[in-house]
Amino acid sequence: MARSRFAKDAGLSFRMGVTMFLNGLIYVVLILGIWWALGRNPGGVVLALLISGGIFWFQWYFSDSVAMRAMGARVVTPQQAPELHSLVDRLCQQADMPKPRVAFSDTPVPNAFATGRSPEHSVVCVTRGLLDRLEPKEVEAVLAHELSHVAHRDVTVMTVAGVTGVVASLMMRTFLYTGGNRNNNNNGLPVQLVLMLVGVVVYVLSFFLIRVLSRYRELAADRAAALLTGSPSTLASALVKISDTASRLPKQDLRKSAGAAHLAFFEFGSLFSTHPSLEKRLSQLEKISGQLSTEY
After folding, report:
1. Mind telling me which residue stretches traverse the membrane in this protein (predicted)?
2. 149 in a labelled binding site
């Protein structure tokens, strides 16, 4: 984890390490699958490495841009959003961490997210819906949650882990778009079929691996934000207000922000949720509130 005043979480560090290790193994299997499908020749190895390396480089350096585009967000200056920058400045000073870029998304969906490859190359974004529906203290609590993701570096791990799923998805699309062409490899199986099968297996493994980490990291961020601000009830209030707006938001607005749902502060309903339930998050905050009250 990055050195900051955000509460450290040994469970999060362990899970990030396991996720990176297992994801690395899956990625090796993915590269071997591409190589085998291409005929197991030296040229296939080079091509597999170029494909995987190129996608990894793109995801690493442009993950923040991709997430911001998915949310329709843009970076704002202190002159354009003085109150928002003031909140971020105060939290970064309190947490003793580098200030990320600050972005704004003009969408009615109340949410926020943080992304980037490192604390020095990160961005924290809030939406118009969030600023309209929450009190300043509640916005501050949400920002503390997002900044803890940056400080804990779980945003970086999510960025790296997401590469495997991207490559696997491309392999599956190759099969679908080519219509299962029957050009065979050395074992007589259609190349596209091999790519499809490997892609499906790898995608499913990566999918569940990321979601297990994602659910825990949200609880860790809630805890770190509550302890930094000293007000778990404020974060709980923000969660309840955001949850209450879900049923009143047009579905088209929710669909527009779905592209960065795994990075967002709150997830608006999903069969395979990347976030823990609202009840679980509120229960944890209630326990933290009780612990803090006994200390004073």
Report:
1. 12-38, 44-62, 155-177, 189-210
2. yes
Residue recorded with tokens 């923040």: 64
The whole-angstrom separation of Cα 224 and Cα 9 is 8
Question: Which entry of 138, 140, 146, 267 is annotated as an active-site residue?
Answer: 146
Number of folded domains in the chain?
1
Q: What is the pLDDT of residue 239?
A: 96
Q: Which class for 197: exposed (0-12), middle (13-18), buried (19 or more C-beta within 10 A)?
A: middle
Helical spans, DSSP H, in the chain:
10-37, 42-71, 82-95, 128-133, 136-152, 154-178, 191-229, 232-245, 251-256, 278-295
Report the distance separating Cα 239 and Cα 122, nearest Å.
Answer: 24
Q: Per the annotation, does 218 bind a ligand?
A: yes
pTM, entire model? 0.85
* CA 267 remoteness from chain centre: 11
The yes-or-no answer on residue 140 being catalytic is no
Flag whether 7 is in a domain: no
Q: Is residue 133 domain-resident?
A: yes
**Domain membership flag for residue 72:** yes
Question: Would the annotation count 85 as a binding residue?
Answer: no
Question: What is the structure's pLDDT at 204?
Answer: 84
Residues of the chain with pLDDT under 50: 1-2, 180-182, 186, 188
Report the pLDDT value the prediction gives residue 219, as an integer from 0 to 100.
95
